[in-house]
Amino acid sequence: MNADWGGLVMPNMSPKKVEMPEQDPNVRNKNFREVALGYTEEMAVEEAKRCLNCKARPCVAGCPVNVKIPEFITLIAEGRFEEAYLKIKETNNLPAICGRVCPQETQCERVCVRGKKGEPVAIGRLERFAADWYMARHGSETLDAQKKNKKVAVIGSGPAGLTCAADLAKMGYSVTIFEAFHTPGGVLMYGIPEFRLPKDLVQREIDTVRKLGVEIKTNMVVGKSITIDELKEEGYEAIFIGSGAGLPNFMGIPGENLNGVYSANEFLTRINLMKAYLYPEVDTPVKVGRNVAVVGGGNVAMDAARSAKRLGAENVYIVYRRSEAEMPARLEEIHHAREEGIIFKTLANPVRILGTDDGWVKGMECIEMELGEPDASGRRRPVPKKGSEHVIDVQTVIIAIGQSPNPLIKATTAGLETHKWGGIIADEETGATSIPGVYAGGDAVTGAATVILAMGAGKKAAIAIDEYLRENT
Amino acid sequence: MFKILEKRVLNPDVKLMVVEAPVVAKKAEPGQFIILRVNEGGERIPLTIADYDRNTGTVTIIFQEVGKTTRLLGTLNEGDFILDFVGPLGLPSHFENVKKAAVIGGGLGTAIAYPQAKKLSSMGVEVDAITGFRNRDLVILEEEMKKVSNRLFITTDDGSNGNKGFVTDVLKKLIEEGNKYNLVIAIGPLVMMKAVSGLTRPYGIKTIVSMNPVMIDGTGMCGGCRVTVGGETKFACVDGPDFDGHLVDFDEAIRRQAMYKAEERQSLERHECRLGGIGNA
């Protein structure tokens, strides 16, 4: 079937990606099972054949961890799925996760040559396919590295920490991860919902990292249970801080402390980490009123809104002060949210939250906005329209306007320099902080960003830590 | 997994457990708390550290069986394990230039007031301890409190110990008798802490209360433990749990504490029902 064509497999010239099956919107908005169902082998091969295997390979440079994209896709096209997976694993420790939650449209797929005329190659879907195919057959692979007998501590077991730890373990270092929660995974566990990123899959990726010899200590709050200085005293020769953006921002408007107002962090942690959607089978509840307002326009806002819908809310509003064009959420997430019946209330800004006499949310007053001149971020600045105040009838309000880095480590580590807004100051290329031997990356440095950027930072820091330890110890 | 080394029943509702937790014990200070999860599927609950021993690596918790999780915890015995136990969390209590203090514990709050009294007394502070309970059968830590205070006053709501009244009645009397306190610590139910803070305000006596709101992570991540203090929103887990009682918005705190009342009742009923089922079988 595959005619040999100048040494290449004959490409599939369809301008469209092979569609990935999904649960029906009206079924899935009532359950927490995964929305996207993944490619079959046939679909994957067909899609893989859309890759031209071009010389320029812009996709590889577009990937923060430089996955060898054309190589793994060629392997899929040839039906060599296991090899495709191992090819991805050469640079990416968490392919099943990246294939699902990476914003490919702004990275690898954005620069794909096929995207100039029609849709780019579905790199994310193919990555997911390869990872799922391998995991279904082999679980996780093991790798034996030459041991170096040097200890490195990694703080946080989210995407930055897991990546840094895995890469260092592969180089032979003895790596211990310190995790504050009872379960490792960070935002992959507490933040991103089951229907976008199944937790048993995250668990399997974590098991893979453990199999590399990485030890994960849970229930360890660095900055409280132990400090960075104490880790050094315990013989850790280098430390990577990947503690994430665990401090929710609130709006500072009246009524934010009423019962029924959640930070997106709390709402999602209750649902994802504590599995409140199974309440009362589990002990942690979550409150969702008949009508729910989610304030914000990012991926976290979409996750919160779609979760609220699944928990039985009749009307779920996304309240966002700019227009849809400025929303920071991925297009796919906005699309999925709309399909599931989320109501978009854009160009609206909350002014105050109204409460009943006994302190429960009964409504939210908003003011309409219009877009003015571009601001520092280049986006048109929203300006309130006088006299346009109105009340929406909601019983639950979820604030999803961003998270800041958690200050616990900064507060207990003398000499660790941070920005005013809380981010740890770290070299972009190496993750080096103001303290020799201490590196940082991910949301703890950048503020809330993406899983893959955190992984990229973890990767760079692992290389820098290796260099540091070779030179200094 | 964290082993329970010792278990004592302090009164029909209140139990004490000494837990093997060397990481927490090494850093614990009075005023701080831990978060525990009894088992898989269990919720995370904060409990204030009642005592700790750095040498043996143990932490003492005292809890009242008010909901499903505390009931379940109460069924564990010496030698059993608690699944998760993390800490020490929150800021330690901070005492400076205190000469004479009144340390007040309401009910279970006595368990939290005790380490504070112990610390103050070890600093050479003159401590009057006042503890209040519904009735004499519920009195806890009487001997312990006596040891770390100059005087101990125990009141009961029903007068069954011969001293009827509220802790505020005793405090008011002591202040009016001319005792010059430069610090009052009040730990107990929100209504009690509110009443004590209201009493000391006109006298201008610095009053510290310990807040124990609903929380999940205890590291500032969820913001569920929001408390309004002096008009500002604070997170009890990282900014507290101790706050200036004259600045805390107790009415809001009381409302917020009721947020999961219905669910708490439901969980407890399911739990009791299952236990009942076993018993009747």
Care to describe what's here?
The complex is a heterodimer of chains A (473) and B (281). Chain A contains 17 helices and 18 strands. Chain A has 473 residues and is of the alpha/beta class. In chain A, the strands form five sheets. Chain A has a five-stranded parallel β-sheet. Chain A has a five-stranded parallel β-sheet with strand order 8-16-9-10-11. In chain A, helix 5 crosses helix 7, helix 8 packs parallel to helix 17 and helix 12 crosses helix 13. In chain A, 54% of the residues are buried. Chain B is 31% helix and 31% strand. Chain B is built from nine helices and 15 strands. A seven-stranded antiparallel β-sheet of chain B has the order 6-1-2-5-4-3-7. In chain B, strands 10-9-8-11-12-15 form a six-stranded mixed β-sheet, with helices on both faces. In chain B, a hairpin with a 4-residue loop joins strand 4 and strand 5. The radius of gyration of chain B is 18 Å and the shape is globular. Chain B starts with a strand and ends with a helix. In chain B, 50% of the residues are buried. Chains A and B meet through strand 7 and helix 12 of A and helix 1, strand 7, helix 8 and helix 9 of B.
